[in-house]
């Protein structure tokens, strides 16, 4: 998957997580779509796909806040994109709550290396 992201979007990714598996048209097709979350580790190239595979992919970048505003306004109609964004939002919230809990548990260390009571 990392290679596909690199070829098509131009990004290196890390911390890949499967968010969901969905049937876009159950009863009509047996196609299954896998939706992943990944963090950007850096930009490698402009993306756009491989010329040898005759891919013509346009990479659009926008702030995350704008994407979620578009979702709330009903401007995103693709079901797999909607599912992916909602699942990613849930994951990000969970991660930030876990980070906040970890921060609260840490106790300051005094100058002599002993933990102070909180």
Name the descriptors.
Nucleoside Triphosphate Pyrophosphohydrolase; alpha+beta; 118 residues
Give me the CATH architecture, please.
Answer: Alpha-Beta Complex
Shape: globular
Biggest β-sheet: count, sense, barrel?
2 strands, antiparallel
How many strand units? 2
The first-to-last residue Cα distance is 45 Å
Q: Name the CATH class.
A: Alpha Beta
Question: How would you sum up this structure in a few lines?
Answer:
The chain has 118 residues and is of the alpha+beta class.
Please provide a written account of the structure.
The protein has helices spanning 2-9, 64-72, 79-105; strands spanning 11-22, 33-43. By secondary structure, the protein is of the alpha+beta class. The chain has one domain: Nucleoside Triphosphate Pyrophosphohydrolase, CATH 3.90.79.10. The protein has a two-stranded antiparallel ribbon with strand order 1-2.
Q: What secondary-structure arrangement, pairings included, does this model have?
A:
Elements: H1 2-9, E1 11-22, E2 33-43, H2 64-72, H3 79-105
Antiparallel strand pairs: 1-2
